[in-house]
Amino acid sequence: xxxxxFGEPVQRRxxxxxxxxxxxxxxxxxxxxxxxxxxxxxxxxxxxxxIDVSAALDVDGLVAIYTWEDLPxxxxxxxxxxxxxxxxxxxxTACPLAREIVRHxxxxxxxxxxxxxYLAEDACSLIRVDYEILTPVVGVEEAARAVHLxxxxxxxxxxxxxxxxxxxxxxxxxREAVETAPHTLAFRLDVERSASMPLEGRGVYxxxxxxxxxxxxYSSTQSSTSVRMAIAAKLGLPLPKVEVIAPDVGGGFGVKIxxxxxxxxxxxxxxxxxxxxxxxTEDRREHFVSSAHERGxxxxxxxxxxxxxxxxxxxxxxxxxxxxxxxxxIIVPIITSTQLLGPxxxxxxxVEFSSIYTNTVQVTPYRGAGRPxxxxxxxxxxxxxxxxxxxxxxxxxxxxxxxxxxFPYDQGLIFQDGRPLIYDSGNYPEALRMLKELIxxxxxPELKAAAAAEGRTIGIGLGCYVEGTGVGPYxxxxxxxxxxGRVHVSTGLTSQGQGHETVFAQIAATELGVPIEKVxxxxxxxxxxxxxxxxxxxxxxxxxxxxxxxxxxxxxxxxLRIAADALEADPRDLEITDGVVHVAGAPSASIPLATVxxxxxxxxxxxxxxxxxxxQFSGASSMDRPPIEEGQEPGLEGKDYYSPIRxxxxxxxxxxxxxxxxxxxxxxxxxYAVVHDCGRLINPMIVEGQIHGGVxxxxxGALYEKMAYDEHGQLLNxxxxxxxxxxxxxxPRIETAHLETPSPLNPLGIKGAGEAGVxxxxxxxxxxxxxxxxxxxDRMPISPSDLxxxxxxx
Amino acid sequence: xxxxxxxxxxxxxxxxxxxxxxxxxxxxxxxxxGGQSLIPLLNMRLAAPAHLVDINRLTELAxxxxxxxxxxxxALARHATVERSTPAAAVQPLLGQALRLVAHPVxxxxxxxxxxxxxxxxxxxxxxxxxxxxxxxxxAHRGGEREVAAAEFFTxxxxxxxxxxxxxxxxxFPARPPRSGTAFCEVARRHGDYAMxxxxxxxxxxxxxxxxxxxxxxxxxGPIPVxxxxxxxxxxxxEASADWAAAAAAVRDRIEPEADIHATADxxxxxxxVLAVRALRGAAVEAAGEEGT
Lengths: 794, 293
Ligand SMILES: Cc1cc2nc3c(=O)[nH]c(=O)nc-3n(C[C@H](O)[C@H](O)[C@H](O)COP(=O)(O)OP(=O)(O)OC[C@H]3O[C@@H](n4cnc5c(N)ncnc54)[C@H](O)[C@@H]3O)c2cc1C
Description:
Oligomer: heterodimer
Number of domains of chain A: 3
Helix content of chain B: 25-40%
Number of strands of chain A: 29
CATH architecture of the largest domain in chain B: 2-Layer Sandwich
Strand order of the largest sheet of chain A: 7-15-14-13-8-29
CATH topology of the largest domain in chain A: Aldehyde Oxidoreductase, domain 4
CATH topology of the largest domain in chain B: Uridine Diphospho-n-acetylenolpyruvylglucosamine Reductase, domain 3
Structural class of chain B: alpha+beta
CATH architecture of the largest domain in chain A: 2-Layer Sandwich
Number of helices of chain B: 12
Order of helices and strands of chain B: EHEHEEEHHHHHHEEHEEEEEEEHHH
CATH superfamily of the largest domain in chain A: Aldehyde oxidase/xanthine dehydrogenase, molybdopterin binding domain
Shape of chain A: globular
Bound molecules: flavin-adenine dinucleotide
């Protein structure tokens, strides 16, 4: 059976191309195009007094130099605030080039275009910018004290403040529930910054066609459709004259969903002005200081619980470090504060966050998007409850789980899509049971004792999460079967290596009954599909996967109708196998989809032999009806959209065993186990790959990665020499088990899997280290040096 | 991250290289060997030499000569070649022990041992090895050459005795004496990273298996590799009863670690002591085994 592919571990079709160097990434395009480079602020907070470009004018090969003063009309205004929210009372975004004040190291001040990037950088190094240094605001707690301001017109440095509160069943507030609970705990948690850090940075290549008066832009983006609209708006161009294509993209992880980046409007603008092409490829140092970071939060927690560890009241106050600007609104802290609840029923919940400006790189979603912080908070809380009561950590979690018969479960909050946080399905007790079995939870005490007898220190930890995936508003799919029998699938959202080419083809092949080899998939090309939202929030499979399935069903229905006519059969008796429509049980009465495609398009002109069958004297059409019936269209194609009522909620539970060296304080992950439930699996191998990549990034966040800002707002580790992403040697082998609880919300029954792996890792590793060391771990990441210091203060 | 403009020279042999260096050295000319340290510095514009003298065509310097007295490594011998040299390992095993800890295989395929010495990074393994063993570096210039002992060669962080216009043509690592062993222990944040702390140790036993000589060289805890003689602290006893704690204390006293974003000074000091014991023990055990064979 070649066509029943949904659920099979089909090998990724894109890999052969990508791993043999045949990928076409941004910098592979536009060889020889003039290059842009930027003079960026060396100061965290300063006023620009003067920009002197005179020395740069002599650089051979210089094309142009632009500052804010050169920007016309809408381009001179601040970039859009993408996701407004009533609580974001003081949202601020930057201008494409700094106007008067710079608010973080790396903010673009001058754009230079030259014959190549080398010359552009030579020119940059000759441009003199005079600054008046202003006091930098660094560190979220320091910023919250508001001794100095990041934006003069934002009092308290508070961009947004939001309280959400769910009273207990008997109507009591969370604070009341905490105060009156049999047991209460209060503590402070701290999560460091990290960043998406895709292998390929950002990049834009724009080509103005003066004959056609049109603009083609390639951008390493997670949302080509929205970049297109932003460019058209900023440059005042008619939308049909702008096309945006995401070529092969070497990872995004969230940073490329932000748009338009300054460079995404400046490079097209320069290309148009110069009447040709301009390219900018971000380098790693730029990526560190000029794109976006995430994670950084301080959380103050108070919890009240009963003797069984059931949480009666939870009161969390979050200081969210938003960096200098808020282009992506307050999505990250909203997700933290809602997804914090995980798989649990909390008696009463109050969460408050303040989104605080600092003179650092802006904070926007990075894979997990606020969830790792929320899960860290909830899971640290669970462990502290267990420690306080002397209970097993899994028992405390089980005591708080939402049970399988309680779905749909309404958490009573508003989620990141502006819709109620209602879990659609799940089976948390079963996931925990599977996890305990996979890691050997119950026999761990013996293992630990045996290790201790040999002088080795080991510990076990776990973490549970629920992840809202597949957020709306919509995605679409377009499917066309051409007269050569090929199936062309396109969807507007973009790909950054997830394997969409494979899974979307699997869906189409299964729905249409065609061999997968016949199916080609195009994503993120506005020439092929103009309406889309983008790839983020574990939504591509859910959104575009379902849209493509629905579009395929339309095409299938049409194909069966046309074939039924040709075969003089009832469409209900027809099946499609291997690209051939046939009468069920009578394989000889058949017609290939290719022929159906020919017949679907009544013709006057026979452009090839096959097409003769559809021409007007071929006798193919009835004389009683018009060649195209009312309400029908020519061609064997279909388009449909999927727009969910709300998000679908995946879940996962991870456990790890770590070893800590009693002398050197080195931390080694000995085992890492994952139980994962993303509904029906389209391709288990791809889901595992997503989990592996996510866990690897999670290990980075737990043990290695931080943004080391000094008090002047200088990022001390803005290179891969000092920003420590784990190598393959630091990532443990990952043992996985899948649970499949279908989503009732969408036709395919699927849930998202893209971010899952990263979400609980810091919580899991903290839990395991705490178990090994007997020292509370309230701050992540943790390095050997940190652990050494903690041991000394024990 | 593109370098500023420079003139590129690719001499075909040593004579030509020394000629070019004599001309451009005083004018800010830099030698380009494996490029594993220099190219990043250029790309980040932390170094902006007016001339680059690429020595990669000087194949006569791609040598590893192991003799009874020691191992002489030519300027174009790559880390990987030296790491895999059996004759070199037989004469001085510490070279291989250290090189396994230097970066990753792909970097060792390009980077050179001599380049690493001239680069003089206080966190690098090879300068510690040269310092511990009391080796030397041979510096050539047009019309002459000089041999500089390790003790004079490392002059500060990223500073060596190689003067502008000079080419380091080889380095000499003395052979392991009889009844002696070596070890290199370090802790890096990730595999292949520069170490937060690391200790190379060499121990020689007397005929009664008592520790006769014991020295360590420590990385990442001072401006240059810190060499400490711990023979007295070990107390002239056999491996099993040596006073390793006293040796570690002696080492901790001598080093001057500083804090950075990866580790506190206190942790580095602590770690260096732990690693000194591990390295000294390893070296002593190896020395005893050496005697046994
Ligand atoms: C990711 C990464 C990790 C690394 N990790 C480690 C590590 O853990 N430990 C470690 O020790 N090293 C590490 N290195 C550095 C590596 O070992 C380099 O190979 C070494 O430092 C320099 O050797 P090179 O041949 O590449 O020298 P180059 O980069 O070519 O030159 C370095 C400097 O030495 C000078 N120079 C080189 N050769 C000569 C010569 N013959 N005469 C005069 N001057 C000369 C150059 O002018 C330059 O100033 C790492 C490098 C990278 C990229």
